């Protein structure tokens, strides 16, 4: 363990212990009615990809009607949530009309079936995280210095979604350079959580989390290098899957790295309200070759999956972290109990040694010196980089910097090697490489681990810095390259979503997705921020 890092961890824990009860009891009361989004009134917004495709294929629904319905929902909620950065509604409506004409031109039912077999997402709307590159659309990624930059081509995963027939509706909000777990930038202002406007939707896929949680996206594409799919999924009560390292191309993503191993850490994956859609969306994003490697088309027998669970880090490492919220621990216990009643082999996990989880997690990011820096071209070499970054943090806190404070803190962690020497970084990375094999042996080809996605539900705006120091709950699994699915498990007494992570061995994504489907069936999955008003 690194003494300096652990002192920070303990100080943050002490501050949270004192501040959190005061904020909840006196500063921020329970959410009021004026922080609620409009209820869903159109039943189409409650249907999954599979259900909607069935209606499109049978010509009971047009793509134009579906796309128009989602645009109306986005316009109804975005004025409150500020999750949209740039829309392409007119182009999407034109593409929907072209799709309907294409379907109508099919001479027979067999022709329609073949069309949807070739393009399984035909006519379905999708929302795109800004960092994932949609040709011709904003590619600023929350940065003032990039505000006029447009994507020159689709990112690889976006290209695959469009080739499968999906129709992009918009670009959604991210933190600056994706370097934060709170989506609040000088360029686009603050994105809000649909369950409570005083709380963050998370980051860096914060816009996607917000829109999906509000029922304003059928599904979205996010990216994840340290929890950026899973944290917004937790905070906004939806499903999000971080694939195994290397199975979904991040070509075209910003920021990116020249490191040939970057796709082990940085991944793109789906965010959705419907667990049953995750596998198919992953197949499209991964491509045929990697889908075969993941065996996504092979059925998974639920009762053959061995389940292990843990309620957080253990021993002195667990003591140093902020305690895992009781409702999140309860969600894990409820899930484990349910799976056991179905006859699955369920046991409390004897985890590999995670005593240095924080150090290993941060070492993985700090070692990415070939990844884009926030202010790379504007500062000198050597120790001057650290001094200039520190000065920008001071300016940012005082409101005089063109960079956001959270992004600069992330930058400082990288510039300083996470406050560790190069020899220590290599030591912890070597330890992490050993852990990959240990987790592979622990879980095998038929095992999953239930684990906290993060230690707390969505925090108040500006207070995410406290939750940031639990980021090794998510980041460690990027370093290890393991697949992780976040599963929503309802809301707590304050109306905030809680949930858990289902983790598999490398390339065992299908096990995570199968367990997610069962937990959705048993516990209901996504719970809307406001009850639907569907009428008769």
UniProtKB/TrEMBL annotation:
The active site is at residues 129, 204, 228. Keywords: Hydrolase, Membrane, Transmembrane, Transmembrane helix. InterPro entries: Amidase_dom, AS_sf, FAAH2. GO terms for cellular component: endomembrane system. It comes from the Eukaryota. Pfam families: Amidase (PF01425). Residues 65-513 form the Amidase domain. Gene3D superfamilies: Amidase signature (AS) domain. One of its GO terms (molecular function) is hydrolase activity. The chain crosses the membrane at residues 7-28. This is Fatty-acid amide hydrolase 2-A. The lineage of its organism: Eukaryota, Metazoa, Ecdysozoa, Arthropoda, Hexapoda.
């Amino acid at each position: 363990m690194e003494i300096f890092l652990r002192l920070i961890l303990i100080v943050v824990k002490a501050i949270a212990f004192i501040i959190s009860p005061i904020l909840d009891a006196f500063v921020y009361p329970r959410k009021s009615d004026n922080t609620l989004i409009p209820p869903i009134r159109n039943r189409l917004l409650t249907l999954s990809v599979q259900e909607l495709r069935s209606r499109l294929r049978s010509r009971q629904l047009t793509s134009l009607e579906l796309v128009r319905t989602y645009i109306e929902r986005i316009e109804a909620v975005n004025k409150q949530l500020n999750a949209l950065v740039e829309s392409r509604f007119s182009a999407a409506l034109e593409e929907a009309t072209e799709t309907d004409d294409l379907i109508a031109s099919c001479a027979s039912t067999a022709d329609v079936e073949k069309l949807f077999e070739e393009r399984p997402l035909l006519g379905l709307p999708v929302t795109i995280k800004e960092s994932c590159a949609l040709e011709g659309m904003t590619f600023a990624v929350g940065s003032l210095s990039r505000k006029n930059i447009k994507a020159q081509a689709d990112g690889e995963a976006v290209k695959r979604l469009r080739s499968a027939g999906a129709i992009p509706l918009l670009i959604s909000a991210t933190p600056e350079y994706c370097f934060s777990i709170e989506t609040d930038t000088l360029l686009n202002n603050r994105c809000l959580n649909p369950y409570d406007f005083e709380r963050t939707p998370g980051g860096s896929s914060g816009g996607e989390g917000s829109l999906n949680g509000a029922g304003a996206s059928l599904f979205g594409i996010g990216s994840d290098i340290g929890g950026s799919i899973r944290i917004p999924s937790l905070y906004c009560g939806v499903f999000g899957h971080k694939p195994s390292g290397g199975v979904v191309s991040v070509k075209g993503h910003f920021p990116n790295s020249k490191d040939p191993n970057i796709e082990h850490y940085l991944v793109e994956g789906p965010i959705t309200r419907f667990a049953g859609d995750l596998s198919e969306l992953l197949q499209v994003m991964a491509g045929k070759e990697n889908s075969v490697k993941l065996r996504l088309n092979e059925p998974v027998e639920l009762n053959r999956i061995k389940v292990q669970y843990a309620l957080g880090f253990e021993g002195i490492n667990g003591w140093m972290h902020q305690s895992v919220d009781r409702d999140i621990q309860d969600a894990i216990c409820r899930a484990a109990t349910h799976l056991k009643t179905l006859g699955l082999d369920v046991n409390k996990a004897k985890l590999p040694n995670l005593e240095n989880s924080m150090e290993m997690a941060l070492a993985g990011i700090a070692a990415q010196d070939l990844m884009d820096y926030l202010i790379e071209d504007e500062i000198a070499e050597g120790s001057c980089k650290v001094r200039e970054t520190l000065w920008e943090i001071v300016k940012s806190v005082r409101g005089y910097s063109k960079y956001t404070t959270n992004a600069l803190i992330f930058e400082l962690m990288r510039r300083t090697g996470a406050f560790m020497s190069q020899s220590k970084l290599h030591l912890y990375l070597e330890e992490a490489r050993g852990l990959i094999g240990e987790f592979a042996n622990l879980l095998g080809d038929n095992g999953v681990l239930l684990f906290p996605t993060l230690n707390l539900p969505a925090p108040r705006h500006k207070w995410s810095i406290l939750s940031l120091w639990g980021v090794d709950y998510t980041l460690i699994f990027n370093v290890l390259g393991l697949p992780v699915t976040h599963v929503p498990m309802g809301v707590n007494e304050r109306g905030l979503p809680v949930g858990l992570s289902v983790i598999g061995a490398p390339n065992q994504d299908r096990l995570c997705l199968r367990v997610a489907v069962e937990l959705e069936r048993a516990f209901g999955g996504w719970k809307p921020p406001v009850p639907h008003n569907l009428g008769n």
